[in-house]
Amino acid sequence: MDSPTAIKILSTLGHEGRLSIFRLLARRAPDALRPSEMALACRLKHSTLSAHLATLSQAGLIQSRREGTAMYYSLATGQTRDFTSYLLEECCRNRPDLCLPTAPTAPAPREAKPGPATILFICTGNSARSILAEVLMRDIGKGRFKTYSAGSYATGKVNPNTLDLLDRSDHDIDGLHSKSLEEMQGPDAPVFDFVFTVCDHAANEECPAWPGQPVSAHWGMPDPAAVTGTDAEVALAFAEAYRTLHTRIEAFAALPLATLDRMSLQAEADRIGALPPTS
């Protein structure tokens, strides 16, 4: 990358609105987001967002694609990587004793860490999707995983439909409760191997700096707790969420975690997050 290009990027990111959009797309990479979701997450008017997206596109920092009448935007990872490399080129005169590496090294294979893998599922309220995921991973894993769930704005109460569905599906629901994300942080909190968000709102928020650099991915799906209508319609929404998570968690549990390196684990986690429910 040359200096004029880097200066243009710095100028583009020197605006709070454009920087917030860029950081949102960086958090959600490789996912592509619709403008309506970005406007809500960044608290921007649609007209303002449109102008910022055009400027970010001109700087090569984001890319777009059209699906029917809908537009989707995502991080241009190549340009972003070139930009950060340019900024840190010859940092500390390339002395490894002074300068930390710019990217985390791959973790040791899974067999180097004894015990079950620790997995955290995050959604906003920790009343439905993340609770379902916690229980499904626990039971499908059959002792291979230690599972947790939490909410960025925990409701403090598990949705009754969640408990009813799990109970009818022969899962142990004793002790399930809604937990705040703060309970999963601090010196006494578990060190997670994997962190999965299961709702778009939680994925769009700034992430805590998790110790141990866990593999993270977004396994988003509609919120069954937000569905209104007849009892049958609500039950159907919860059943669909259960089926989607069951499909993804079965695929994850089948992975040979002990033999996959970090990049392979990340690719598999991203792939699984897009799986639809099996019929």
Describe this structure in words.
It is a single chain. The chain has 279 residues and is an alpha/beta fold. It folds into two domains: 3-92, Winged helix-like DNA-binding domain superfamily/Winged helix DNA-binding domain (Arc Repressor Mutant, subunit A); 110-272, Rossmann fold (3-Layer(aba) Sandwich). 42% of the residues lie in helices and 12% in strands. It has ten helices and six strands. The protein has helices at 3-13, 16-28, 35-42, 46-58, 77-88, 129-141, 160-168, 200-204, 231-253, 262-272; strands at residues 62-67, 70-75, 117-123, 145-151, 194-197, 215-218. The strands form two sheets. It has a four-stranded parallel beta sheet with strand order 4-3-5-6. Strand 3 (117-123), helix 6 and strand 4 form a beta-alpha-beta unit. The longest helix has 23 residues, at 231-253.
What order do the helices and strands come in, and which of them pair?
Layout: H1 3-13, H2 16-28, H3 35-42, H4 46-58, E1 62-67, E2 70-75, H5 77-88, E3 117-123, H6 129-141, E4 145-151, H7 160-168, E5 194-197, H8 200-204, E6 215-218, H9 231-253, H10 262-272
Parallel strand pairs: 3-4, 3-5, 5-6
Antiparallel strand pairs: 1-2
CATH-assigned fold name of the largest domain:
Rossmann fold
Q: Whole-Å distance between the termini?
A: 49 Å
CATH domain class of the largest domain: Alpha Beta
The general outline is globular
The CATH superfamily of the largest domain bears the name Response regulator
Q: Treating each run of at least 4 consecutive H or I residues as one helix, how many helices?
A: 10
Count of domain modules = 2
Output the radius of gyration: 21 Å
Counted beta strands: 6
